[in-house]
Amino acid sequence: MGADPIAFAIARESLDRLPTINCFIVRKERKPHGMQKVVEGLDSTEGRKVVVLDDVCTKGESTAVAIENAKSVGMEILGAVCLIDREAGATELLRDRFGVELASIFKLSDFR
């Protein structure tokens, strides 16, 4: 849930500028009740080009799960962005597993 407020803030700010940004949530796993969706917040996902946002990336596993789940509903992953990259393998994991580049706002080494 760490990236949700960031994503929603970006989407809200985009309403005052073009192009607007659609925000969605990728669940780690389907809930056993309700609509049982893995992606919430969009009417259609098939063929949608997206960027996956995470708050902190360490080894990249949670971002990888989000990418896998987004791909499972037909989304095309253009890249991934995290607020802080702890530089512990996320960049390499996402590149090697998915061919996805990870951009970051800050790196852990920026604070040393």
β-strand percent reads 25-35%
**Contiguous helical run count:** 3
The strand count comes to 5
Order of helices and strands: HEEEHEHE
Evaluate the radius of gyration.
Answer: 14 Å
Spatial order of the strands forming the largest sheet: 3-4-5
- Nearest-integer average pLDDT: 92
Tell me the span between the first and last alpha carbons: 27 Å
Helical percentage: 25-40%
What spatial form do the alpha-carbon principal axes imply? Answer: globular
Structural class by SSE content: alpha/beta
User: Could you give a short account of the major beta sheet?
Assistant: 3 strands, parallel
Low-confidence stretches: none
Structure description:
There is one protein chain. By secondary structure, the protein is α/β, with parallel strands linked by helices. The chain is 29% helix and 26% strand. The protein has a three-stranded parallel sheet with strand order 3-4-5. A two-stranded antiparallel sheet has the order 1-2. Strand 3 (49-57), helix 2 and strand 4 form a beta-alpha-beta unit. Helix 2 (61-72) packs parallel to helix 3. The longest helix is centred in the middle third of the chain and has 12 residues, at 61-72. It is globular. The chain starts with a helix and ends in a 5-residue tail after the last strand. The mean pLDDT is 92.
